[in-house]
Amino acid sequence: MEEEKKTTAESEKKYTERKRWLFFGLPFTFTRYTVTDEVITINDGFLSTKENDCYMYKVQDVELLTSFGERLFGLGTVACYTGDNTHPQLHLQHIRNAKEIKDYILRASEEARRRRRTLNTLNIDAADLDDLDD
After folding, report:
1. Which residues are CB-contacts of 58 (< 8 A; sequence separation ≥ 6)?
2. Cβ–Cβ under 8 Å, residues 93 and 19
């Protein structure tokens, strides 16, 4: 029974990171990233704020980008390519634990698609194949 509790707690993993300055990796910005198994949330701003959410099942691909400056201070940028209409590309910029978060998003997005029984497909102009049958 204890094993079931552990797997449930592990599946509800949550990452909260702040966008950092590239200089020494200090978190003096007002951008906060939250990644759960259901949604990626970006909160930005101090006086006027903006919140952007993207459901995990919409994430199609994830990329880790690290510049020389980011590597010096142990940071990275995670780029998420999504099927979201408002932000087809989400960038979690200058965050710590970037590789771990990228791997988590990749696994969680696949699991979210399985749970929702969502299929990712590309439009390859299959209508042209009907012309070959004639």
Report:
1. 82, 83, 84, 109
2. yes
Query: Could you tell me if 38 and 23 are in contact, meaning their C-beta atoms sit under 8 angstroms apart?
Result: no
On whether the 13-112 domain is CATH 2.30.29.30, my answer is yes
Beta carbons of 81 and 61 less than 8 angstroms apart: yes
Report how far Cα 98 is from the mean position of its chain's Cα atoms: 10
**5-59 per-position pLDDT tens digit:** 334 445 578 999 998 988 778 888 899 999 999 999 999 999 999 999 999 999 9
As a whole number of angstroms, the longest Cα–Cα distance in the chain is 65
Please tell me the total number of residues recorded for the chain in this structure: 134
CA distance 43 to 58: 19
What's the CA gap between 105 and 67, in Å, rounded?
21
Q: Write down the domain spans for the chain.
A: 13-112
